[in-house]
Amino acid sequence: MQHPWAVILAAGEGTRMHSSLAKVLHPLCGRPMLWHVLKAAQAVTEQQIVVVGKGGSQVRDYFGEKLCYVEQHKRLGTGHALLQTLPQLPQSGELLVLCGDTPLLQADILRRLLDIHQKGKAGATVLTAEMEDPTGYGRVLRDINGSVTGIVEQLHATPAQQAVREINTGAYCFELAALHKHLPSLTPNPEKKEYYLTDLLPLLASAGYLTEAFKLTDAFPALGINDRVQLAQATARLRERINGQLMRDGVTMLDPATTYIDCGVRVGRETVIYPQTILEGETDVGENCLLGPATHLIDSVLKNNVTCQKSTVWQSKVEDGATIGPYAYIRPESLIGPDVKVGDFVEIKKSSIGRGTKVPHLTYVGDADIGPGVNMGAGSIVVNYDGRRKHKTTIEAGAFIGCNSNLVAPLTVGGGAFVGAGSTITRNVPPGSLTLSRTPQQIKEGCARRFMKNNKEK
User: Fold this and answer.
1) pLDDT at residue 189, rounded to an integer
2) 185 in a structural domain
3) Is residue 361 among the annotated active site residues?
4) Choosing from 73, 182, 361, 391, which is the catalytic residue?
5) Could you list the residue range(s) of the whole structural domain that residue 204 is in?
6) pTM
């Protein structure tokens, strides 16, 4: 049996978005609108064709050439857009027609639409929904037996038709043989000079085809996004789905409404997420972690039993049992080893930190390899940049770096070495040695009173 195909209409200009970004590329929970529609369509169809128009190059750049694209050079309506795809479509079977701005449509709805279409042996099946306020939507017309007779756009609807609350969502299933035969017969609307896909239904009816409908009890999943207000509303609904599924899978969220998690993020069981936490991109969090409040993870991997509070971790990996924060910043290409402590106001960039090492507070580590069991004192700085190039620092196992030390790269501090507080180190430190680099302390007896007096005068 031939599998269904899908055409996704993504050529709309999206003028109400007021954006230079193609409308269907505006993101919800980390993914463009069109990505969500494609995901649902790919679950139930063999092949997908995307109709693009203005902004089509942006769509191609994002999704690449793995998709089949058809360009609608002149935006002459939905019927005209579908007409451009006919040469690419099989002669028989079923075709789903979806809108690229309906990211909340799920595969189970599309399966049900296909099922109703196939069982009813219809030429066309329309996805409809009941709305309290249907203003702006095409109304579904039925005869006294409840059969669909057509769809009328609000602009052309009579007062009686405008009172109808069943609306057209813009999603259809067509019999391809009927589509090939009758779609080219569409004529433009005399007022807007556009080809309405809804006008195909009377053509099919006159040719003896049945039109079925699948009416949703909740209209929201099928509604299109036209502006940023609707985008935010849809994002909130999608976030509810994501958070709900994670909680059902064993994740605790103290306040799901203020927990922001992208599509595709993975979180293990027994992890607790505090409010104002954001998990983005390809983030993968293990089991029994504690995240937040106010933690931001971007494309990062956290293993099991990690604590990360009020901190940012970006494109980095954190091993089992590590503790981060509060107010730490882990920059890309960093590896935080098992049982490491990264404390408050610490920044780590492109560095690896070995097992059990402590970087407790007020420290910068850049372009460094730090071995296990190292202690970085408060205020210690890895000086990795000479104004032209970045240089590497290596701190071997068990070394102790005193408070307010500057390690000027390129540099190696040997295993078990001790760097005295307040030192500026510019040469390699041998293993097991003590090194100091301080300006000699001077004491001027009896001078304190004079300086105190001068300060008061100011």
Assistant:
1) 83
2) yes
3) yes
4) 361
5) 5-222
6) 0.91
